[in-house]
Amino acid sequence: MTAYYLLLFLHYTGVILLVGNITVTAVWKVFANRTGDARIIAFGQRLVTGTDFGLTIPGIVLTMVGGYGCALLMGYPLFEDLWLIASQILFVVAGLIWLGILVPIQVRQARLAHGFADGGVVSDEYRALSRRWITWGLISTVPMVAVLWLMVVKPA
Fold it and tell me: Of 17, 74, 100, 101, which is most buried by a Cβ count within 10 Å?
């Protein structure tokens, strides 16, 4: 049972890192952008990029290692219960949006922000990418919230 609780702890820690970071990151970005100050916006973008790679990726790894580890250790069938199948699909959907849409936007924004970090002018391209990023970020958060609900409720 000690291994189970260690894996469960890793799973919960991963979920906290992952969901906490995707939520806080959006808040940072929105408020930084609303200042209109190029230096603050560039700093906010650096934080978004840094925490995505420093917290989101470890959160994903811990969530998966802990969750699958618990399931395998306890002999839980991964592909029999509808709630568990749906959770895995929704997790993958959120991940595909993050990898396929959000990360490329962030990379482009990071390059643009580097150009105005010393107080230059925030380009219209950066602002358009920010709107796109927040829209897709919110869209990718919906499946993650659904996964949390499914994991807690485990509907039949």
Answer: 17
Tokens 């002999």 belong to which residue?
Answer: 75
Identify the three-state secondary structure at position 121.
Answer: coil
For residue 137, CA distances in Å to 14, 26, 59, 63, 83 come to 19, 8, 16, 19, 24
12 contacts 66 by C-beta, under 8 angstroms:
yes
Rounded distance between C-alpha atoms, residue 31 and residue 44, angstroms: 9
Query: Please, which residues have CB within 8 angstroms of residue 8's CB and are 6 or more apart in sequence?
Result: 66, 70
pTM value?
0.89
Task: Estimate the crossing angle of helix 124-153 against helix 82-97, to 10 degrees.
Answer: 170
Find all residues with CB under 8 Å of 53, minimum gap 6, and list them.
none
Q: How confident is the model at residue 119 (pLDDT cuts 50, 70, 90)?
A: confident
Residue 95's contacts (CB-CB under 8 Å, 6 or more residues apart) are 60
The answer to whether the beta carbons of residues 95 and 60 sit under 8 Å apart is: yes
Least confidently predicted of 5-19, 33-47, 75-89: 75-89
